[in-house]
Amino acid sequence: MKVFLIYGGKSAEHDVSILTAHSIVKEIYYNYYDVVPVYITREGVWLQGETLFAPTTHSESLRLTEGDAKSIAQTEAEVSYGIRITPADIKSEDAVIFPVLHGPNGEDGTVQGLFEVLDMPYVGCGVLASATGMDKIISKQLFQQVGLPQVPYVPVFLYDWKNNQEITFLRCEGSLIYPMFVKPANMGSSVGISQANNREELIDAIDKAFQYDRRVVVEQGVEAREIEISILGNTDIHVSVPGEVVKNKEFYDYDEKYNNGGVELQIPAELPEELIEKLQKYAMEAFRTIDGSGLSRCDFFVTSGNEIYLNEINTLPGFTKFSMYPLLWEQTGLKYSDLVEELIQLALKRYSEKVDYVEIN
Q1: Using 50, 70 and 90 to split pLDDT, how confident is the model at 319?
Q2: Percent of residues in the chain assigned helix, strand, coil, to nearest 5
Q3: pLDDT in tens, 71-112
Q4: Are 98 and 5 contacting, i.e. CB atoms less than 8 angstroms apart?
Q5: How far, in Å, CA of 34 to CA of 245, rounded?
Q6: Rounded Cα–Cα distance for residues 234 and 124 (Å)
Q7: Residue range 301-330: mean pLDDT, rounded
Q8: How far apart are CA 90 and CA 69, in angstroms?
């Protein structure tokens, strides 16, 4: 079976996507699959590389350069070529798509819609779950509907910000207290997120967030531990042991997550059993609320008084060497290569069930 591994993309999380793709390339079972790398450049060009029958040695080999058939046949050691294709060119029988496109146009339902049109099985959440899970404002409203606990928040829209900032100040400072955290509504990996301790910093933080999206969410800062739960399954949902993100300072950004190693992961997190069960229950409920499938990771805040707040659900968590999602499953008893295999099987099962449903009706 072919696995079309789709990575890169136009979002700010382009480099994270390449690291994730390389991790999968190193661990997938090549006795079952041939891996076809499909790299999307920062400009949105789709490049298909040579089919892989064994792991690559370095992640940069997946950062393809556009070439032709002759270029690929005469590939130099330091250059990896790919042929320009259209998305429709990946349409294939006996194949599955494994997308690891983080951020907009990757985990927000847009590319998932393309896969639905191509009528091919693909790993991860579908259109609805991807779109709602990615959008911090919509997901918060949905979680509020089902009674999941969250920190207070205020949505901010670009039109209001441009035309009357005082309204935003009244709404934020009227219902929240400093420190506040400001985030683009549709972004991940801490891209565009800032902490604001006063109005001046709030202005800068909102301006920064609007560089990535036209909608922004301002959240109440809380003094709490950051606990994460991994989720795996379709209708039969499984949850991992909890992990804790241990920071050496109050707030960490993209660079500290992926480049500087400024974050330590404590797995499993030291928590009372009763609290762990509640976190796992909330994670499954959040997953069901957005109609999740395949995989997700739920992020929580836990205060010193053991109060729980759902921070967000991530429908396409990273697979880098620093990533919590696969490490949680490894601690739970599922090693990385088996996790990749399970995700592929879940994709095939969901597609098969959808086909059966269509035929019945």
Answers
A1: confident
A2: 40, 25, 40
A3: 555 555 567 899 999 999 999 999 999 999 988 889 999 999
A4: yes
A5: 35
A6: 9
A7: 93
A8: 17
Torsion-angle region of 30 (φ positive above 0: left; ψ -120 to 50: alpha; else: beta)? alpha
Q: Cis peptide before 179, with omega less than 30 degrees from 0? A: yes
d(CA 58, CA 336): 18
Q: Which two tokens stand for residue 114?
A: 């393309």
* Pairing status of strand 308-314 against strand 243-247: unpaired
Residue type, 297: R
The single-letter DSSP state of residue 304 is T
What is the distance of C-alpha 233 from the center of its chain? 16
Q: Which domains does the chain have, with CATH numbers?
A: 2-122 (3.40.50.20), 152-220 (3.30.1490.20), 224-350 (3.30.470.20)
The pTM of this model reads 0.89
Report the DSSP beta bridge partners of residue 230: 297
Q: What is the distance between the alpha carbons of residues 182 and 161, in angstroms, rounded to a whole number?
A: 14
Report CA 98 to chain centroid distance, whole Å: 13
Quick: pLDDT tens for 178-198: 999 999 998 765 778 999 999
Tokens of 194: 């800032």
- Mean pLDDT value across the chain: 91
Distance between CA atoms of 8 and 42, rounded to whole angstroms?
A: 7
SS3 264: strand
Q: Which amino acid is at 324?
A: M
Residue 271 in tokens? 């928590």
* Cα distances (Å, whole numbers) of residue 122 to 114, 162, 183, 351: 11, 40, 29, 8
